[in-house]
Design goal:
heterodimer, A: mainly alpha, Histone, subunit A, 4 helices, 2 strands, 4% strand, B: 486 residues, alpha/beta, Amidase signature (AS) enzymes
């Protein structure tokens, strides 16, 4: 399994990871090598085997639907890099260009 | 008692000394803080020493002991892996992206230790977000093995293991996703227990791979591991995967003979590349188990060779989802850029270290459109086969014995250029995480002056048998009396 630079850039974009050109190349080689080791799984016939995502036997654990004390807004915002008026503050999610284009 | 005597006590011995007035918790705590001052410059087990918190807790513990209300860990100095959130010290997961973060709540295990009146001496180093097998992936510098400072302590709970081995804490908590308690405990010559998945609440453990992660003790003795497990185990409404039901008294179940115990020896647990010194010490340990009355049974865990590949899809896939939360918005580091997307990319690109990025990329790839079935679903199916191997084996035996790692502690820097070589350090520990079953690592000898570790694997929710067998071996073999000279 050999990944291309475009493969690595695509996955980095999905994962919102900014990578330098050097990191991209190093990851391309390392991930290709790791995926080669992982190919060993293809030797097994698993057509009739159900998948296991987690191992305990609990399902649909529900809590009572009652109001309980929680952290205050001030506490929750205390670690935020930037906040304003009780909100986390970030750059505009939609730019003027996209809103004028009507695609939002 | 002298300061050097105080730093040799197990938690059980410390309890006795405190209750009999041989020392106060303040004296005990001060002895450990002094030891940290003296040697942690060399070992670097700690990211944050909680001096003032510890002394305050020790004073409170002394008052509680005087009033006759002592719990097993009241007044006992404990080290916490810096991936467990605490309200009175920073929690970084050894990552730049969380530098300076102080949690608004305590992890459930931390809260339970607080209720017991334990003393927190500090937060220990780890591979960043617990991703690694050597503690070299910490953004704040590596930890070194107290037995030989040119060797790694193992990882990811390398700081916790080194702190106990170097007598900078009586006992510590670590977390184990693929061996991260057992492998460093093995490399540092101490005891490490990964409980059954669901035995201990994961609330407040910064998540790496949620279906595999489990918190557990690293200690000098099996008895201490039992004491700590009882302190932290049990259902927690904050973690819906924590198991309901009664928790047995593990300490009461410790035994000294092995009559009637069936111990499985898996042929797949002797692999090419094992060091001779490890093979020999583990063989001698197994012989000793037999001499103590255990019946040895040959078993097979046929899908063992697929465990590493299964793990290196499952764990990164879960990690890529779990680490999405570190986006520079709610907490931690932010590198501001002109757009939100660029802020995410730059913050995450600079905030995460190389191994974390590698695993996020691997996980995102395995979950991405077009590859999901071939990688992620395939790994989940093989996970079923690996779990079935254990289900079958445990119909015939009570415990499985083998090596914790194929080698003793390796050299600092020796595996950093080859990720897959590093991953092989966990080849014997990973299957228990995949199956969700418990495992304990304990010292069983030395090779090249470094500790060798025996791993015992048990049935889900049967830590009692596991700890009982481990205790019987430990008491007869006496390896726990050896301590690192540092």
């Amino acid at each position: 399994m050999s990944l291309t630079t475009a493969d690595v850039e695509h996955v980095a974009s999905l994962a919102r990871l900014g990578l330098s050109r050097e990191e991209t190349e190093r990851l391309r080689l390392q991930l290709s090598s790791i995926l080669e080791h992982i190919e060993v799984l293809q030797q097994l016939d698993t057509d009739r085997i159900p998948p296991t995502a987690q191992v305990n036997s609990l399902t649909n654990v529900l809590r009572e639907d009652v109001v309980r004390p929680s952290l205050t807004q001030r506490t929750v915002l205390a670690n935020a890099p930037q906040s304003r008026d009780g909100f986390f503050e970030v750059r505009a999610v939609m730019t003027e260009e996209t809103s004028e284009g009507g695609s939002a | 008692m002298t300061r050097s005597d105080l730093t040799k006590l197990s938690a059980a011995e410390a309890r006795t000394a405190l209750d009999k007035g041989k020392c106060s918790s303040v004296e005990l705590t001060q002895a450990y803080l002094n030891r940290i001052d003296q040697i942690d410059g060399k070992v670097h087990a700690f990211l944050h020493v909680m001096r003032d918190v510890a002394l305050g807790q020790a004073e409170a513990a002394d008052a509680r002991i005087a009033s006759g209300d002592a719990q097993p860990l009241t007044g006992v100095p404990v080290a916490l892996k810096d991936i467990l959130v605490t309200t009175d010290a920073p929690t970084t997961a050894a990552s730049k992206i969380l530098d300076g973060y102080v949690s608004p709540y305590d992890a459930t295990v931390v809260a339970r230790l607080r209720e017991q009146g334990a003393v927190f001496v500090g937060k220990t180093n780890t591979d960043e977000f617990a991703m690694g097998s050597s503690t070299e992936n910490s953004a704040f510098g590596a930890t070194y093995n107290p037995w030989n400072l040119s060797k790694v302590p193992g990882g990811s709970s390398g700081g916790s293991a080194a702190s106990v081995a170097a007598r900078e804490a009586v006992i510590a908590l670590g977390s184990d996703t693929g061996g991260s308690i057992r492998q460093p405990a093995g490399f540092c010559g101490v005891v490490g227990l990964k409980p059954t998945y669901g035995r201990v609440s994961r609330y407040g453990l910064i998540a790496f791979a949620s279906s595999l992660d489990q918190i557990g003790p690293i200690s000098r003795t099996v008895e201490d591991a039992a004491i700590m497990l009882n302190a932290i185990a049990g259902h927690d409404p904050h973690d819906s995967t924590s198991a309901p039901g009664e928790v047995p008294n593990f300490r009461a179940g410790l035994r000294t003979d092995l009559n009637g115990v069936r111990i499985g020896i898996a042929r797949e647990y002797s692999v090419a590349g094992m060091e001779q010194g490890v093979t020999d010490a583990v063989a001698a340990a197994i012989k000793q188990l037999e001499d103590q009355g255990a019946e040895l049974v040959d078993i097979s865990l046929p899908h063992t060779e697929y465990a590493l590949a299964t793990y290196y899809i499952t764990a990164p896939a879960e990690a890529s989802a779990n680490l999405a939360r570190f986006d520079g918005v709610k907490y931690g580091m932010r590198i501001d850029r002109a757009t939100l997307q660029d802020t995410y990319r730059t913050t995450r690109g600079r905030g995460f270290g190389a191994e974390v990025k590698r695993r996020i990329m691997l996980g995102a790839y395995a979950l991405s459109s077009g590859y999901y079935d071939a990688y992620y679903v395939k790994a989940q199916k093989v996970r079923t086969l690996i779990k079935q191997d254990f289900d079958e084996a445990f119909k015939k035996v009570d415990v499985i014995a083998g090596p914790t790692s194929p080698t003793v502690a390796f050299g600092v820097g020796s595996r950093m250029d080859d990720p897959y070589q590093m991953y092989l350090a966990d080849i014997f520990t990973i299957p228990a995480n995949i199956a969700g079953t418990p495992g304990v690592a304990l010292p069983c000898g030395f090779s090249e002056g470094l500790p060798v570790s025996l791993q015992l694997l048990g049935k889900a929710f049967d830590e009692g048998t596991l700890l009982g067998v481990a205790h019987a071996y430990e008491q007869a073999a006496g390896w726990c009396k050896h301590t690192a000279e540092i």
